[in-house]
Design brief:
202 residues; mainly alpha; Arc Repressor Mutant, subunit A; Tetracycline Repressor, domain 2; 2 domains; elongated
Length: 202
């Protein structure tokens, strides 16, 4: 069977992103060149530029992929049945766990996040908006079921995400790891109390 250009191009784009992420992890974003990525793929740099106009565009693609995994996990929790308070707790702990696994302790990926915030803020802003919308989705469900006693779900979600920033933001997770402060369970208890829930960590 002969593959059409439509089949080949998405596959090549994905291969470029996979190799780029691996090199960013191994040698760092700053030290990785498009020529390095092309060499790993046994193609010319010009061919890589057919799919991504710049190294920054590759970086944004890798960042979107990593952030998209977190967004997907959050969306799955929104779609699941069950008490809203328990699902919100699961969502907040999942976001913390996934961001910790991806960025904390991995200096190379940590560098990539810092650069994304400096050079590709729109990618980070879109991610934060989606996470906020996911949180708002569970809050709205909790209001509908009578578990939460709060006003506008989106405003409440913005407040929740602000309260959880120490546990969400990769740089703050790393910086606050050995500093005094509440545990994530204590912080979520506080958030849920603010939403009018009686759900507490066991």
């Amino acid at each position: 069977m002969t593959l059409t250009a439509e089949h080949v191009e998405p596959d090549t784009r994905e291969r470029i992103l996979v190799v780029a992420e691996r090199l960013f992890r191994q040698i760092g974003y700053q030290k990785t060149t498009v020529a390095d990525i092309a060499k790993e793929l046994r193609m010319s740099p010009a061919n890589v530029y057919r799919f991504f106009e710049s190294k920054k565009a590759i970086h944004e693609g890798v960042a979107r992929g990593l952030m998209g995994e977190v967004e997907g996990a959050a969306q799955a929790i929104v779609n699941r049945e069950g008490p809203a308070a328990a699902r919100l707790r699961e969502m907040l702990t999942t976001i913390n766990r996934m961001n910790t696994e991806r960025y904390v302790g991995d200096n190379k990926l940590h560098e990539m996040v810092e650069i994304a915030m400096q050079e590709s803020w729109e990618v980070c802003a879109a991610h934060m908006q989606l996470i906020t919308e996911n949180v708002a989705g569970v809050i709205a469900q909790g209001v509908a079921s009578g578990e939460f006693k709060t006003g506008d779900a989106l405003t409440s979600a913005l407040c929740v995400c602000t309260a959880m920033m120490r546990f969400f933001h990769p740089q703050m997770i790393a910086q606050c790891a050995d500093k005094p402060g509440p545990t994530i369970e204590q912080q979520i208890d506080f958030v849920l109390a603010g939403l009018g829930s009686r759900n507490r960590a066991g």
